[in-house]
Amino acid sequence: MAESLTKSADREPILQVRNLVKHFPLTQGVLFKKQVGAVKAVDGISFDLYRGETLGIVGESGCGKSTVAKLLMNLERATAGEVFYKGEDISKLSGRALKTVRRNIQMVFQDPYTSLNPRMTVGDIIGEPFDIHPEAAPKGDRRRKVQELLDVVGLNPEYVNRYPHQFSGGQRQRIGIARGLALNPEIIICDEPVSALDVSVQAQVINLMERLQDEFDLSYVFIAHDLSIVRHISDRVGVMYLGRMAEIGTDQEIYEHPTHPYTQALLSAVPVPDPEVSGARERIILSGDVPSPANPPSGCRFRTRCWKAQDKCAEETPLLAVPAPFKDTDSPAAHDSACHFAEEKDVVGAA
Amino acid sequence: MATATTPDPAPDAGAASPALLDVRDLYVEFRTRDGVARAVNGVSYRVDAGETLAVLGESGSGKSVTAQALMGILDSPPGFVTGGEIRFRGQDLLQAAPEERRRIRGARMAMIFQDALSALNPVLSVGTQLGEMYEVHQGMKRKDARAKAVELMERVRIPAARSRVGDYPHQFSGGMRQRIMIAMALALEPDLIIADEPTTALDVTVQAQVMDLLADLQREYDMGLILITHDLGVVADVADRIAVMYAGRIVEHAPVHDLYRAPAHPYTRGLLDSIPRLDQKGQELYAIKGLPPSLTAIPPGCPFHPRCPRARDRCAVDRPPQYDVAPGRTSACHFWEETLRDEEPPHDR
Fold first, then answer.
1. Which domain holds residue A245?
2. In this complex, is the C-beta atom of A278 within 8 Å of any C-beta atom belonging to chain B?
3. Where is the ABC transporter domain (chain A) (predicted)?
4. Most buried among A28, B41, B63, B120, using CB within 10 Å?
């Protein structure tokens, strides 16, 4: 199944993101607000999402991955760039047209404790999308639909009158997923859907999401900082750093044949739950912190922490493309990577 | 319970010197409106100088409460230590006078908290907070304390320490703040450090830096380290021994390599199977069914039995003792032998 999905070149993408930019203005003054700069949260991101696949987006905090999620949902207005849903640019839609599109793109949030209204019953929470899109379910039919959804996500349909505080974290996340499914969307944007959950519950929710994807032919954009989980669930993975995409490819290309130094450092820093493996692994420990997105470095954004950085990196912004040495080869290293000095390196130690 | 419990995993009878820290049969409960929450139910472990013990568990397993009881910073009420001993270099801390405990806390055992931003005082500069350690415990003058603060910041590798000593916590990044927490814990060169999820709030690249630093400093000062975490990955890199906690009890206690190679408790096995691995793409993840129990209503017998694939009738009534699996290794499972051999459970429940 994963095999057929990776061969996505011949299929039409369901979502195309082109040069997406979001700058948040920094202002000074109380009465006469003067813009003194901008936080460049997302600064030129492009990718495609195909039907039925999971695209993982990983990166550290502040890299802009959650802003990307909001832009895809049109919860934030993009400063520049386009998001095409089935060929139509949705980034500039508003009103009724936006509402129609949103029915097909839903979101599951990170924190199951704050993303559910504590004063609403589970039935009202899951049924609320039907109030906004009445055409999705006739009035008399809603209760039955809500109970069906509860059943689909593995909760007892009789819980429909309970409140969120009566559920555990994992169960709440199931409620959030049920709400996301209510309108039968084609795309679900998941922003750190399991990072607030305990390890033993995480696996339950991940398995549920995979089952639902097969059942309803969903496409996921799966945003997370946990690289192991992203590998598990994703068909393709994009690595973000400071508002830009550093590298993007299939899960195997990214994890076993990374060519961007940031991806390599990130992967090598992930602790592996096996002392035999982790002792034998080479660790790349980066120095310093991620620079501020209000004042990003010139050229390659990663150069201030990169051990390979040269003058060229400060002067010339590397493009996200297949690096020259791997161009026109069958090598798994031949995937998009934004580095002037891209080199293949196996840091995960996969056999 | 009817069964006899075997003694602590590491009895120090006849040992030449007492352990750095020896916790025996510790009980902690919280008396709340909704009933008594039994957070810690007979926990025993020991830590020696230069050694790292990882205490692993999910939220509500009692791992942090144990640490708070050790440090004597349990919110009381509602929290009460209702039984057991905490021996620090042979001295039972639970019997010590409050002033004595205060002297030990900070100076000889120190704690690193998970969330550095809320653990540090936002209205005092980091230099003042670090210097306070010396002023309070050693009666040092403010100016000298300030100089010591700079020294500490350099030791935890904060760049430009001299110019940043007057900065406030919010001016530092998450990783830098956690270094300041570490610096504060190290200030008086304690014998034991308890780190409660020290890297959970940090990004992976920064997490690696901080764990590295902690390991270096531990080696340098020959400290004992108790690392409390829920992350099986972090533990694998740094721990010597692991104690896995579930519902306020230690269910398995083992040297790190043994535990990962062949877990002797079904809960440990389940945890290891339920995490996706970076270096391999598996099929469906194993999921432990159900939820951790409420601490106000811990199941009788083995607390894990309602979720356990190996559970039999006996497990629901007979609370398992700490069985000796090997020297220095215990498991609280009646069927640890078949778990260790990873046999198929006798029937599908």
1. 2-51+58-104+221-337
2. yes
3. 15-267
4. B63
